[in-house]
Amino acid sequence: MRIADRVTITEVGPRDGLQNLDRWIPTEDKIAMIDALVDAGIASVEATSFVHPKVVPQMADAEEVMSGIDRRPGVTYKALVPNRRGAERAVAVRTNVLVALITVSEAYSRKNQNRGVQDLVHNVAEILRVGHASGTRVDIAVGMAFFCPYEGPIAEDRVEALFSQLIDLGGERFYVATTSGMADPAHVHRLCERLLSRWPQIELGIHLHNTNGMALANALAAMDAGVRTFEGSICGLGGGVVMPHGMAVGNVPTEDLVHMFSEMGVYTGIDLPSIGDAARRVGELLGVEPASYVGRGHTKAQTMLKGQATPPYHPA
Amino acid sequence: MRIADRVTITEVGPRDGLQNLDRWIPTEDKIAMIDALVDAGIASVEATSFVHPKVVPQMADAEEVMSGIDRRPGVTYKALVPNRRGAERAVAVRTNVLVALITVSEAYSRKNQNRGVQDLVHNVAEILRVGHASGTRVDIAVGMAFFCPYEGPIAEDRVEALFSQLIDLGGERFYVATTSGMADPAHVHRLCERLLSRWPQIELGIHLHNTNGMALANALAAMDAGVRTFEGSICGLGGGVVMPHGMAVGNVPTEDLVHMFSEMGVYTGIDLPSIGDAARRVGELLGVEPASYVGRGHTKAQTMLKGQATPPYHPA
């Protein structure tokens, strides 16, 4: 098992978390949320989405959010951009990184975005051009890279073929996303290792949903395969896909990712008590309970028993 | 990352799960629970504990349970035995494996069992003698091997020194337990690799609690280090330690362990739908909700969308 010295955590709660809330979050609360996360040590944050407000009303204030943030030196402020127009809007307000989205699943792409995968490849090409022209970094998020609720398992050949196209277009930084939250550690390891061994020059991150409870194990497998950037969402907010049974398809909570890496001695630059506090502050701000182990106090520091009564006899 | 071809799952719910319930479970329900688990493919089950009924009243029917089970060929029926007397009781009703318990933490040992660790080493020696004399296999469960809520982190040197004593006494099969549920994958990997590289002849399993949410990641790390036996508890029942804040300190749910290994292509001999059904049956029998992802239907088969409406636009 390869354990990295350091990894980067990207916070996606302000975008992937908030877009899934069914009520409007005031712009000042969004900004307060982002600033609180940066205060806790987050150095990379997906702050909003420059999508059309009719499509995702929750992100209608993208310009106001990006302009209202207290920009800190050394912090990367990212935004999802669905197309050229979104990319231009994002660049106009000094977004540091444009996140271009594409999914491997043809069925999901057509149902969710009403466009085929090859059509979205052209879209990514346009976003890359906006990035190139403006000197803005572009990350490409490759969603439904493991399992699609419409198509089932996604063959690694298809992911590799799509990467090949995107790299030919100039793509250099990628995320693979377990969008349905149904990936397993062997699959994650296999795919990440395959992509990184064919294209060692790319930067590959992973975006983890946690439908099946394997997100932390998947993070471990990805790290072993060479991945060094992990996306999480504070309080486990959000999720990208509507699933049956009213399931929570949350992102892996940032604070639980930080907890695991921190315990393992992997440097994230984020202090565990600070991110725990940030989770509580964000929870209060949004009126939600942090759906995380750290948020419920399940850390070593908080489970030490000091002067408590003898527990009843319960063999280990 | 080393992925095993096959692993063994030991079910501990009938012992570690039920001993923590605050109400009496009728003997016939305990037996029905064990038989249902074996029906689902479980080939190793810790069925009860031969502890004094005044200490753990829930296990007062240990003989009746062990005698009432429908013994199936190829299935190993295990029981926890706290001492020589317990071991003799277990052997008298044809228990296949005696599980001798010891904890690394001196403070926990004194508070929980009112005996020091060295005193319990003599206890294990007595149990090993009963096993040897009767031709019954003895597994040694080494609890609080990672983090103790009284002592804090447990140094690997101490675990190794205890193993050395126990191996000198004739111990051959061991479990290390993350009793407080606060282990991380790097620690698990380091300890298991150290023990297996010094004593490659031993059989080393892991007993996983999930207080910090890292249990599946810990299972993955243990597998990478060479561990091939994993203990889980159906529905995530149980937990060994009383923690502050009213925390659930459950075991890792057997069905979630089976899910991860099954998705990874690691053979367990246990069919995923069958163990999911068993979790629901046990949940009904005991009147509890399965605290697991599989129990809530978070499997690929159950999250496929067939003919459902187009989901709203939510970028991945």
Tell me briefly what this model is.
Chain A has an 8-stranded parallel beta sheet with strand order 1-10-9-8-5-4-3-2. A two-stranded antiparallel sheet of chain A has the order 6-7.
Textual characterization of the structure:
2 copies of one chain form a homodimer. Chain A has 316 residues and is α/β, with parallel strands linked by helices. Chain A has one domain (8-303): Aldolase class I (TIM Barrel), CATH 3.20.20.70. Chain A has 12 helices and 10 strands. Chain A has helices spanning 13-17, 27-39, 62-68, 84-92, 106-113, 117-134, 156-168, 185-198, 215-224, 254-264, 272-286, 300-303, and strands at 8-11, 44-49, 76-81, 97-103, 137-143, 147-148, 152-153, 173-177, 203-207, 229-232. In chain A, helix 4 packs parallel to helix 6. The longest helix of chain A has 18 residues, at 117-134. Chain A is globular, with a radius of gyration of 19 Å. The model of chain A is unreliable at 240-248 and 307-313 (pLDDT under 50).
Could you list some keywords that capture this structure?
eight-stranded parallel beta sheet, alpha/beta, homodimer, two-stranded antiparallel sheet, TIM Barrel
- For the secondary structure, the number of strands of chain A is 10
Q: What is the N-to-C order of secondary-structure elements of chain A (H for helix, E for strand)?
A: EHHEHEHEHHEEEHEHEHEHHH
Assign a percent range to the helix content of chain A: 40-55%
Approximate strand percentage of chain A: 15-25%
Q: So what's the CATH class of chain A?
A: Alpha Beta
